[in-house]
Known about the structure:
Blueprint: E1 8-12, E2 48-52, E3 69-72, E4 79-81, E5 91-93, E6 96-97, H1 121-125, E7 126-129, H2 133-141, E8 151-153, H3 164-167, H4 169-179, E9 184-188, H5 197-204, E10 209-214, H6 220-226, H7 233-245, E11 250-257, H8 266-276, E12 280-285, H9 292-303, H10 308-317, H11 337-352
Parallel strand pairs: 3-7, 5-8, 8-9, 9-10, 10-11, 11-12
Antiparallel strand pairs: 1-2, 4-5, 6-7
Helix pairs in contact: 2-4, 4-5, 7-8, 8-11
Amino acid sequence: MSSLRHRFAASRIAPAQTVEDFVGVQIDPERRRGRGAGINPSGRFEPTQTTAFDDGWGSADDLPPFKTEVQEEKPRRIITTNQSPDISFDRSINPYRGCEHGCAYCFARPTHAYMGLSPGLDFETRLFAKPNAAKLLERELAKPGYQPKTMAIGTNTDPYQPIEKRYRIMREILEVLDAANHPVGIVTKSALVLRDIDILSRMAARNLVKVALSVTTLDRKLARAMEPRAATPERRLAALRLLSEAGVPTTVMVAPIIPALNEPEIERILDAASVAGAREAGYVLLRLPLEVRDVFKDFLERAYPDRAKHVLSVIRSMHGGKDYDSTWHHRQRGDGPYAWQIGRRFELAARRAGLNREKRSLDKTQFRSPQPTGAQLSLL
Length: 380
């Protein structure tokens, strides 16, 4: 008898069900070693939900560990636009879908459901790369009437996650932006950004780039549990220092701030980042949209069972009793006394550390439309 028959049970999902019904069963720790999520529930768009269970036959022992798999995709467009009133950019690029860093709190996890995959372990093990991104970008920048504004990269999944070492998509994108004198803002929690310091420093000399490092905690144990394949806190601070020394304007992002978990570190993170050379700082409160809620709750119960109920209680107090409120302007800052306290603490700590004394605006006036490879040359 095939052991596959004993591993899973499938049940049809009724149309009336919501994301609250999509809670997964914990995966064996040996299979998910080094990963952030402990569950791998079916995506919310799937007609059936598959759940692992122990049937007593020992069949789960036959299942291999989760390994990182990368599939190449070739989109028709690479620049994504948005009209969200509570974010500072209207266009962005995502070189990859999914992220191997495995951050338990990642708000981008639900996007994997659109691929028919789980926002849990699938999100950090079944990745998609866009190797034609640079060519698409060059073509889109060359379109008649294109108006340059700062391009945001890293606002969804990290462009410098581990597979970038092999694919080098982000470097190719930077080469196109550099040649076109196009401003770009980068967010990452990876020290791999230092690989491209030659391009970044060149662009910085023309006021065309800013780099934000996300420093969530200075506690190595917490970082290892919460974002297992991201750079250590020390390496992120070192990246801030080396970028700053190379003339690249840097920002520290304390994101997300999680009540009673990394929240006590706000002041220390800002002080350390300021010493490392950061000149601006920002923060975002923990966001738990859709399946992120269950992945993060599972993480809390596994890693910090003594704090789980308190953390979730405080989160709800900032969202009107709910786990999450997606209302514009509210979703990233929350509301109520606790949210107000976090905001004031951050503001005062940033001021004491000498951060945010001025906000740098990148220069979009230098842009020159690229000439795509193979394009017909003008006679005049």
